[in-house]
Amino acid sequence: MATVRKEWEEAQRLVVKIGSSLLADVKTGELKRDWLASLAADVAAIKADGKQVIIVSSGAIALGRKTLGLPRGALKLEDSQAAASVGQVDLAHAYEECFRSHGIVTAQVLLTLGDTEERRRYLNARSTMETLLRLGAVPVVNENDTVATSEIRYGDNDRLAARVASMMSCDCLVLLSDVQGFYTGIPGQDENAELLSEINDITPEIEGMAGDTGTELSRGGMVTKIEAAKIAVDAGTHMVIASGKVENPLALLANGGLCSWFFARTDPDASRKRWIAGALEPRGAVIVDDGAVRALKAGKSLLPAGVTAVEGTFDRGDAVVIRDSDGVELGRGLSAYSRQDAAEIIGYKSREILERLGYRGRDELIHRDDMALKKSIGNSD
Ligand code: GLU
Fold it and tell me: Distance from the CA of 145 to the center of ligand 1, in angstroms?
């Protein structure tokens, strides 16, 4: 009996990506309701263990094309967008029904590439999903195919799921697919093809095994899965490819079923802090008083009350430098307010934000999760 991986056992927040062929019968386009019910039971068990689950689900196009009577085979972009907008309704309904029977609330979240790449939108999407998770709901994410044109779309949910995992600092990304894992060759065609159960490094050799980048679907979508693995492991998220062709696929995975793990070397919080500290060009600065310096050292968020001045031109979600009154850099963080709005609320209590700005924004100017302090200061990684 295979052992349960500690990466699975220790994961607190997971993304589970469901491929279209698991949810919809390829020939008839019919929804596989029994399978979805079994997945809902698995998710309920995981949640009962105190973990949080986000689902990234494909299937909108597969379901919608049947309803619209579109032909089989490749669809024109506008037809696939029409199919997605029809099928997404069925998909959301199906999740709602199957999860409700376990007392779980589902939430539809439709994202585009820009929502995960552009900082302001990224912060919005992130904070909505944080709220949903805090309230115990399961976000069911798909690409917003209706508005995602060819230049600005993911087009595949493997990479979307990896971006969501990184955006939400998840510990583990599960790609449920119609293959059992990552093979060294094409199973069925290459008699020496072997399943790799543990991948520590995504080497050029591994990438080569995924197949020709020109033919995305030639190896059961392995090219996009490797792309997803790169995003995930860089973000500190372990990724696992497992078969979803069985009922209760997550229970099987939990019990040590066949699969391929791609291991991350850092944890997601450390990766996110690194990204905030180094990868983003700061657009401005906030100067904080001594009380705020003490609060930051104690691991707290930065409240508007502790800020004495703002500099530069920044928007909500932009990175800013945090400085003390002597001009010493304490760290960096993502501002929850634009410079203009920040200037209106600094020095004031958070409960006065509504009155000052006319809307109720976040209590914190920079939330501690969105902050990377210098090592010498304290809570940085
Ligand atoms: N967003 C597409 C759909 O829901 C799926 C993309 C994919 O399967 O990778 O049908």
Answer: 8
Ligand 1 touching residue 84 (CB < 6 A): yes
Ranges for all domains in the chain classified under CATH 2.30.130.10: 278-377
Q: Which atom of ligand 1 is nearest to the CA of 157?
A: 9
Q: What are the residues facing 279 on neighbouring strands? A: none
Asked whether the predicted pLDDT for residue 68 surpasses 50, the reply is: yes
Output the pLDDT for position 212.
54
| CB of 301 closer than 6 angstroms to any ligand 1 atom | no
Biggest CA pair distance of the chain: 70
Give the 3-state secondary structure of residue 216: coil
Q: Are 369 and 323 in contact (CB under 8 A)?
A: no
- CATH 3.40.1160.10 intervals, the chain: 6-265
20 Cβ below 6 A of ligand 1: yes
Does residue 21 line the site of ligand 1, with CB under 6 A?
no
Query: Does ligand 1 have an atom closer than 6 angstroms to the CB of 90?
Result: no
Mean pLDDT of 96-101: 97
Architecture of domain 278-377: Roll (2.30)
Q: What is the pLDDT of residue 243?
A: 92
Q: Is the CB of 296 under 6 A from ligand 1?
A: no
| 6-265 fold | Carbamate kinase (3.40.1160)
Instruction: Judge if the beta carbon of residue 142 lies within 6 A of ligand 1.
Output: yes
pLDDT in tens, 328-349: 999 999 999 999 999 999 999 9
Is residue 70 within 8 Å of 79, Cβ to Cβ? yes
State how far the Cα of 280 lies from the Cα of 41, in Å rounded to an integer: 41
Report CA(29)–ligand 1 centroid distance (Å).
14
| CB-ligand 1 contact for 61 (6 Å cutoff) | yes
Give the neighbor-by-neighbor strand order of the sheet with 106-111: 106-111, 138-143, 52-57, 13-18, 172-177, 238-243, 259-262, 198-199
Q: How far apart are CA 127 and CA 59, in angstroms?
A: 26
Nearest residue to 96 (alpha-carbon basis) of 87, 106, 108? 106
pTM, full prediction: 0.82
Which ligand 1 atom minimizes the distance to the CA of 224? Answer: 9
Gap between the Cα atoms of 354 and 112, Å rounded: 30
Residues 379 and 375: their CA atoms lie apart, in Å, by 7
